[in-house]
């Protein structure tokens, strides 16, 4: 590792510590959720926040937009939302001289951080309108390509409890999310702190810690961060072992209907670097692979009917895969 890269990593780690401290002013507890959301953005990807209502998912996205200095927009997904409500549309305008011309009005997707709130409440056409934007960072409206701002990230939320009137996200769209971030309930101490902080007369003041240039520099530096051969091989072993046609242990793969593709390995390769950077480490290790296995694999795998009938749970299966492929070294 060059001295210049070493200095960049150390400086980025210090700045990210400030980011986490600033976010903690508004978002109390949920440290793992905050780190995963930051890791997704640092990796240049998108995150799917899954949790019950009232767990600060929306607040987290708004807070990250402010602290990271990003231009943020929010879209509340509803069954009547149309693709043009997200992408924008051309309108016919009449000039003072009587001439007419089309003018493009940008939709909320033209931002740097888009919050897609309750994404599974919109119909398939509207959900698919995000696909090209999330993968290609541009959209096509009226046959014309329109580039999105850089950087561009989507943090979507989803309520796992109330499924009536919702539309499950297709596998192709789920695969575009770098991580599925499960948001749980706070513990008693954190909930007490939330109660005191949010029912008083004063609220925490947030200040930007980074700007767009800082964030993009970190994203570029992250891709130059070294990854050891043992970590690379462990990523390949884990992802390939999760596929039903991998020839791995039958008690695990026989339960899988379909497994993760190469994007899962790419997500792990970027994610372990981001996790190491957030922990002020110079390179990732096997513990990073083990920690990110769930967020990377959960939405890229599905159990078959027989496994579901037997009560097999996907998180348990992934944990067994991690233990089998990474062993005790991952827990060190």
From TrEMBL:
Domain AAA+ ATPase: 43-187
SUPFAM superfamilies: P-loop containing nucleoside triphosphate hydrolases (SSF52540)
Pfam families: AAA_3, AAA_lid_2
Annotated transmembrane regions: none
Gene Ontology molecular function: any one: ATP binding
The protein, known as: MoxR family ATPase
Organism field: Pontivivens nitratireducens
């Amino acid at each position: 590792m060059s001295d210049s890269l070493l200095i960049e990593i150390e400086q980025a780690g210090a700045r990210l510590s400030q980011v986490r401290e600033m976010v903690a002013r508004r978002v109390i507890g949920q440290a793992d959720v905050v780190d995963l959301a930051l890791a997704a953005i640092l990796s240049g990807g998108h995150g799917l926040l899954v949790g019950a209502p009232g767990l600060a998912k929306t607040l987290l996205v708004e807070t990250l937009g402010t602290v990271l200095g990003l231009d943020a927009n929010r879209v509340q997904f509803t069954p009547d939302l149309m693709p043009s409500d997200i992408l924008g549309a051309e309108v016919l305008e009449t000039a003072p001289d009587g001439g007419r011309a089309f003018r493009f009005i940008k939709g909320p997707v033209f931002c740097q951080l888009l919050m897609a709130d309750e994404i599974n409440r919109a119909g398939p056409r509207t959900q698919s309108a995000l696909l090209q934007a999330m993968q290609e960072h541009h959209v096509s409206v009226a046959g014309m390509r329109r580039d999105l701002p850089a950087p561009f990230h989507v943090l979507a939320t989803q309520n796992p409890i109330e499924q009536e009137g919702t539309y499950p996200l297709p596998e192709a769209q789920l695969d575009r999310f770098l991580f599925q971030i499960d948001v749980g309930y706070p513990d008693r101490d954190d909930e007490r702190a939330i109660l005191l902080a949010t029912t008083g007369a004063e609220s925490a003041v947030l200040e930007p810690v980074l700007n767009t240039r800082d964030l993009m520099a970190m994203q570029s530096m992250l891709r130059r961060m070294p990854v050891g051969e043992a970590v690379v091989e462990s990523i390949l072993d884990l992802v390939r072992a999760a596929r039903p046609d991998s020839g791995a242990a039958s008690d695990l793969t026989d339960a899988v209907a379909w497994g993760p593709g190469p994007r899962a390995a790419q997500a792990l390769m970027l994610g372990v670097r981001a996790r190491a950077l957030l922990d002020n480490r110079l390179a990732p290790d096997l513990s990073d692979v083990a920690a990110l296995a769930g967020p990377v694999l959960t939405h890229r795998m599905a159990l078959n009917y027989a496994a579901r009938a037997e009560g097999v749970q996907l998180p348990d299966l992934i944990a067994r895969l991690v233990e089998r492929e990474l062993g005790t070294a991952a827990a060190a």
